Amino acid sequence: MRAVLLLPLFGVLSCAKNINVRDERELEWWESTIVYQIYPRSFADSDGDGIGDIKGITSKLEHVKEIGAGAVWLSPIFQSPMYDFGYDIADFYAIHDEFGTMEDFEELVAKAGELDIKILLDLVPNHTSNESMWFQEALKGNEKYLNYFVWEDGVLDENGVMQPPNNWLSHFRGSAWEFREEVGKYYLHQFVVGQPDLNYHNPDVVEEMKNIIRFWLNKGVAGFRVDAVNCLFEVDKELFGGKYPDEPPSGRTDVDSGSHDSLQHIYTKDQNETYYMVYEWRDVFDEISKQDGLPRLMMTEVYASIKDVMRYFGEGEREGAQMPFNFDLITDVDASSSAADIKRAIEKFLTYKPVDKNGNWVVGNHDKSRMATRYGTALVDGINMLVLLLPGVAVTYMGEEIGLVDGYVSWEDTVDPSGCNTNDPVNYVKYSRDPERTPFQWNSDKNAGFSTADKTWLPVAEGYTKLNVEAQKTSARSNLKVYQALANLRQEKVFRYGRYESIALNTDVFAFKRWYNGETYLVVVNMRDSEQEVDLTYFENVIGKAAVVLRSVQSPKNEGDVFDVASLPVAAFEGIVLKL
Ligand code: GLC
Ligand code: MG
Q: Which residue's C-alpha comes closest to atom 2 of ligand 1?
């Protein structure tokens, strides 16, 4: 009797073993998407002033669609004197005139909607512009707005000369404090002088920022990338007798005393209050989503320890950002890295992230040397294979789909404060972010088709006549075509729901496996200029033959070619996707 009863039960149990209830859950729009970052000044210039603009972006949305991206994140488009190219915002509720008008923006959102592309904006909560009404009112002595900023008395040195309150440094060199005669005090600016830090201990500031979020989300914006969040709070000075304390030296010998990296930012970064502010913003996102049914996405920009980055996901009952950016493939590895280094960098985020949250893959942005330059042009397809086929959200900085490289920007042409503030016509190159911001390369026409102007705001990179979207569209094999194929492949369930495992097969060749419901894919990337033969049977359940589904531009293989997985030949810098 017992045995008879157990038999059907056993059947149910063994069946349940094969089906993971999490696997087929419906994903939110952002969980399987590609987020495409556009730096608006450099994407497309519609009015010939040499500066990219919103109408330009609208006119090029088809490109975004063609590469398979589902969301666009725009670097700031708000009214700004452009001391930090839009990250210094004078009016959070208005569109910067060089970029266009509010109508242009609404048109962009509408056109994107037709193409099923979400628009994400850049929220810059840490600071405003010194030309904002808030700061101008503060200078006039308006109490309400004085309290929007962080003011501190200077100190007299032994010669009786007034000096900044303490040793805090700006990210762009020199003191983080600037004296204002009108107030008789110094204000804090962790970035350029024109970016006064907001005072988050003031509830008015907190409410104001929430209203800014509401304003744009109500316009149909699908979320925000949140800028420099870990700089939001400074330590409570009351804990230090009412004076902000000095930060200790970092001990780094590769930087001089004016550099931000010469200090350990224990009082100006990663303060506990910051995380709770992010959780409050998430509540605002959810409040709007509840009203109109569109789930909103928050991506936080934080360069910090992995444990601190993880805190942005949420804590206990509190939800935070769905996507604390994973910068490990920018900060931890480059062309010189071994396969093991790559494996470790990839697994870091996956290991630390909460089990119910998503990974995300970022290899470039407007602050970092371009992916093709950092990894080398031969690895562009291989790196895009990682970004698009690893488990989680893929992020592409405009140009990565065609392997755009850094442009050369002379000292004379340099405009980025991070470069200019070095005052050093030789070493500025180590700091300037202009090279990764040079105009997008559309075709071989004047200014790479970016603009009809005689002079563009940054020079177009050399080599654009060959390296551009049009050339890659017409060529039989190109980075662009590989990217598009990857974006298509990414739609397969195995890349949405499938498991992941990786192996550094030797010092040069990194491989990972994705599998789901009996389907198995293998992705193999050779980081070096060397020929290899690798044995993929080190992966569990990988035996027999596998067919090439996709390969990098320089690969000698063909789609459909079949190989013995125990002895796969791998060419220099080759990237291959195989199906078992
Ligand atoms: C972020 C931005 C960077 C900007 C800084 C200050 O790091 O990505 O471009 O300069 O914040 O807003
Ligand atoms: Mg323009």
A: 227
> Is the backbone of residue 260 left (phi > 0), alpha (psi -120 to 50) or beta?
alpha
Residues 69 and 155 in one domain: no
Structure confidence at residue 16 as a pLDDT band (50, 70, 90): very low
Is 322 within the bounds of a domain? yes
Q: Is the CB of 124 under 6 A from ligand 1?
A: yes
Residue 343, H or E segment: helix 339-352
Pairing status of strand 118-123 against strand 151-152? unpaired
Q: What is the domain extent for residue 388?
A: 34-127+202-233+272-483
With a 6 A CB cut-off, is 367 part of the ligand 1 pocket?
yes
pLDDT digit string, tens, across residues 523-541: 999 999 999 999 999 999 9
Token pair for residue 120?
Answer: 């994400």
Cα 186 to the center of its chain, rounded Å? 32
Residue nearest to atom 12 of ligand 1 (CA): 87
The one-letter amino acid at 36: Y
- Return all residues near 319 (Cβ < 8 A) that are at least 6 apart: 279, 282, 286
Listed in sequence order, the DSSP H helices in 191-304 are 203-217, 272-292
Q: Are strands 509-516 and 532-534 parallel, antiparallel or unpaired?
A: unpaired
Q: Provide the domain count of the chain.
A: 2
Residue 393, beta-bridge partner list: 360
- Shortest-distance atom of ligand 1 to CA 191: 6
d(CA 293, CA 288): 8
Q: Do both 300 and 407 map to the same domain?
A: yes
Each residue's pLDDT tens digit, 554-565: 999 999 999 999
Residues 61 and 80 in one domain: yes
Are 391 and 368 in a shared domain? yes
List, for residues 368-409, the tens digit of each pLDDT value.
999 999 999 999 999 999 999 999 999 999 999 999 999 999
Strands (E), 69-176: 71-74, 78-79, 91-95, 118-123, 151-152, 155-156, 162-163
Whole-number Å distance, alpha carbon 573 to ligand 1 midpoint, is 33
Q: Is residue 569 part of a domain?
A: no
Decide if 301 is catalytic: yes
Same domain, 214 and 340: yes
CB 85 less than 6 A from any atom of ligand 1: no
- Output the pTM of the full model: 0.95
In a domain, 276, yes or no: yes
The Cα–Cα gap between 170 and 177 comes to 8
CA of 38 from ligand 1 middle (Å) equals 14
| Cα-to-centroid distance, 138 and ligand 1 (Å) | 24
Catalytic residue among 98, 152, 227, 436: 227
- Catalytic, 246? Answer no
Question: Would strands 532-534 and 568-570 be described as parallel, antiparallel, or unpaired?
Answer: antiparallel
Residue 226: nearest ligand to its CA? 1
Are 220 and 141 members of one domain?
A: no
Measure Cα distances from 288 to 77, 94, 107, 219, 227 in Å: 22, 20, 21, 11, 21
**DSSP strands (E only) in 344-432:** 360-361, 393-397
d(CA 41, CA 87): 12
Choosing from 45, 234, 301, 508, the catalytic residue is 301
What element of type H or E holds 17? helix 2-18
